[in-house]
C-alpha cells in the first residue's frame, strides 16, 4: 500500500494562539506544519525547505505580509500558492502580487484545510474551478455558483489555478476576471471546458456544461 506524502505548510503570524490552534488542527489532518511568529526565523527556515503552501498574515509588527511575500518570491524557484489572512484588504495589491487565496479573520480552519489539501494530496472533484479577480469582502461569483447547488473551488490567481488542475478534476473552469487577464493566462489552463463570464447573470452558462 502506497503511503500518501503529507503536504508541507508554512505559517507566519504574530498571533501565538492562532499559530498553536492552526498548527494542531492541520497536523491532525496529516499535514507537516512549520508555524512561526518571528519573521527572521521564518525566512531562515524557508531557505532550506520549500513548502507546498504558505499562509501569511498581513499585519505584523516586524514586517508586513506584503514585504515577506516579496522576499519569498525571490527565494522560491517554483510557484508556491500563498494564502493571505487579515482583517483588512487591498484589492489592487493582492491582484498585483498574485495572492492565491484570501481568508478573513477569524479563520474557518476546516475551509483552510480543504484549500491546502487541494494543493497537497489533491483528488478533489469540484463541479467548478472559479478564477476571479481579488474580492475579499464579497465573492458574488462563488456565491451564485453555490446557490445553484454546485460545488466550487475559488482562486484569485491563474498560476494557482494551474497548480490546482494538476491534482484535481473539476468539471468546468469558470473565469470571471478582466478580459485582459483572461487573454494573458488562458493557455495555462489545461482543461477542455473553460468558460469566460462577464457578469453574474452569465453564471447560468455553466448549467450547459454540468449536466
What would you note in describing this structure?
By secondary structure, the protein is an alpha/beta fold. The protein has two domains: 113 residues, Rossmann fold (3-Layer(aba) Sandwich); 83 residues, Rossmann fold (3-Layer(aba) Sandwich), CATH 3.40.50. The protein has nine helices and nine strands. Strands 2-1-3-4-5 form a five-stranded parallel sheet, with helices on both faces. It has a four-stranded parallel sheet with strand order 7-6-8-9, with helices on both faces. Helix 1 links the parallel strand 1 and strand 2. The model has no long low-confidence stretch (mean pLDDT 87).
Compute the number of strand runs: 9
The CATH homologous superfamily of the largest domain corresponds to Response regulator
Q: Helical stretch count?
A: 9
- The helix-strand sequence is EHEHEHEHEHEHEHEHEH
Q: Unreliable segments (pLDDT under 50, ≥5 consecutive)?
A: none
Q: Could you tell me the mean pLDDT?
A: 87
Broad CATH class of the largest domain: Alpha Beta
Number of domains: 2
The level of helicity is 25-40%
User: So what's the overall shape?
Assistant: globular
| Estimated share of beta-strand residues | 15-25%
Rg: 17 Å
CATH architecture classification name of the largest domain = 3-Layer(aba) Sandwich
Rounded to the nearest angstrom, the distance between the terminal CA atoms is: 36 Å
In order across it, which strands form the biggest sheet?
2-1-3-4-5
Name the structural class.
alpha/beta
Major β-sheet profile: 5 strands, parallel
CATH topology descriptor of the largest domain: Rossmann fold
Amino acid at each position: 500500500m502506497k503511503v500518501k506524502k503529507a503536504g508541507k505548510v508554512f505559517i507566519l503570524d504574530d498571533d501565538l494562539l492562532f499559530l498553536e490552534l492552526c498548527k494542531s488542527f492541520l497536523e491532525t489532518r496529516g499535514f507537516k506544519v512549520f508555524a512561526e511568529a518571528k519573521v527572521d526565523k521564518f525566512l531562515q527556515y524557508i531557505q532550506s525547505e520549500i513548502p507546498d503552501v504558505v499562509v501569511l498574515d498581513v499585519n505584523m509588527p516586524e514586517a508586513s505580509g506584503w514585504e515577506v511575500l516579496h522576499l519569498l518570491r525571490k527565494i522560491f524557484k517554483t510557484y508556491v500558492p500563498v494564502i493571505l489572512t487579515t482583517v483588512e484588504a487591498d484589492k489592487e495589491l493582492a491582484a498585483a502580487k498574485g495572492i492565491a487565496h484570501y481568508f478573513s479573520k477569524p479563520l474557518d480552519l476546516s475551509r483552510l484545510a480543504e484549500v491546502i489539501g487541494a494543493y497537497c494530496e489533491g483528488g478533489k472533484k469540484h463541479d467548478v474551478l472559479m478564477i476571479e479577480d481579488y474580492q475579499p469582502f464579497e465573492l458574488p461569483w462563488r456565491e451564485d455558483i453555490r446557490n445553484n447547488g454546485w460545488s466550487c473551488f475559488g482562486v484569485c490567481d491563474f498560476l494557482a489555478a494551474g497548480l490546482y488542475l494538476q491534482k484535481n478534476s473539476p468539471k468546468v473552469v469558470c473565469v470571471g476576471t478582466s478580459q485582459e487577464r483572461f487573454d494573458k493566462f488562458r493557455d495555462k489552463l489545461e482543461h477542455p471546458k473553460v468558460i469566460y463570464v462577464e457578469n453574474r447573470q452569465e453564471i447560468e452558462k455553466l448549467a450547459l456544461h454540468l449536466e
